[in-house]
Amino acid sequence: QDYFTDENRVLKKDPQQDYHLEYAMENSTHTILAFSRELHTCDTNDKSITESTVRVIWAYHHKDMGEAGKNYHGSNRGTKSLRLLNPEREEVSSASLPYFDLTNKDVPVPDKDTTYWCQMFKIPVQHEKHHVTKVEPLIQKGHENLVHHILLYQCSSNLNDSVLDYGHECYHPNMPDSFLTCETVIFAWAIGGEGFTYPPHVGLSIGTAADPLFVLMEVHYDNPSFTEGLIDNSGLRLIYTPVLRKYDAGVIEAGLWVSLFHNIPPGMPEFVSEGHCTLECLEEALGAERPAGIQVFAVLLHAHLAGRAIRMRHFHNGEEQKLLAYDDEFDFNFQEFQYLKEERTLLPGDNLVTECHYSTVDRIRMTWVSNILV
Fold first, then answer.
1. Numbers of helices and strands, H then E, in the chain
2. Which segment of the chain is annotated as a signal peptide (predicted)?
3. Is 302 assigned a catalytic role?
4. Active-site residue flag, 153
5. Catalytic residue among 130, 302, 314, 357, which?
6. Per the residue annotation, which of 116, 198, 221, 358 is the catalytic one?
7. What domains does the chain contain, in order, with CATH numbers?
8. CA distance 45 to 16
9. Strands 235-241 and 99-103
10. Which of 82, 98, 204, 316 gets the highest tally of CB atoms within 10 A of its CB?
């Protein structure tokens, strides 16, 4: 039956029944219910289903509902963030494909709120082109809430193997000079995300002279409880194939640059910041190398705890196109790639505007930006 809750969390039967049972099955261990509903029911007691994140809350009692009414679920409850309309990925079996891991080795995580740790790696696949088809996070068990995001940067190929001998805190005055050669992001992962699978016709190129030989892995550790003695060995697994795909993949970053000039006042129920990737920017970035533009097939929207919604707006010839990606119900702990239903062409001279919506209603001090990438 279709129920809803009021502000006191009291369950009430909805006079407009919009949920329809399609299938039900029960055995000694499982109860399975399949149901359907319109995305927009025009019922004020129902939440519209969009491409934004949805919190699905579940609860059950081990006995069926009796004449006395509903049984209280007790501790048999939970919640999960999902993107119900995110198109399914076309999974190509990777069980037999080779892979290599880029993982930290016994990194001592400081007892402070935020730490960025950088480690250089050498790509083991060389001298022949291959395509990375999938990247999986390797998060140390128990550290799921500690590792906030991982970025992989391409570095100068003129470095030598001596840069592989040490890791160091990123953006630190004593950071090795070799780290400064690593500017181009080639992959990103954030908390709550699963492995990223490239479309069947696209792969991340490795193994040629133009591809990265050295990469820098940046891991953001989020330790708000200032826990001492944490040792981490998290990282990424890159699965690759010698069977080449039609197109090479890359990353374009858009959003708000990390800057002390970007700050958010306290006590604000909503505060909006915009990051502009101007037509001059995309003209310079794409005009010479990609005059026919690039195809966008997935977007990762990324923010921190004050983030409430993110929208990626796309303009062509001064006219706004359909939103490239959005999440009006942003969940810090569920930062998953959005696969576009149809690839979008981004041309030299287009504009991208990243809208970041924040709430600091529960904060009494100014919020200074540490990192926002989309």
1. 1, 28
2. none
3. yes
4. no
5. 302
6. 116
7. 3-82 (no CATH), 99-248 (2.60.120.310), 263-368 (2.60.120.230)
8. 9
9. antiparallel
10. 204
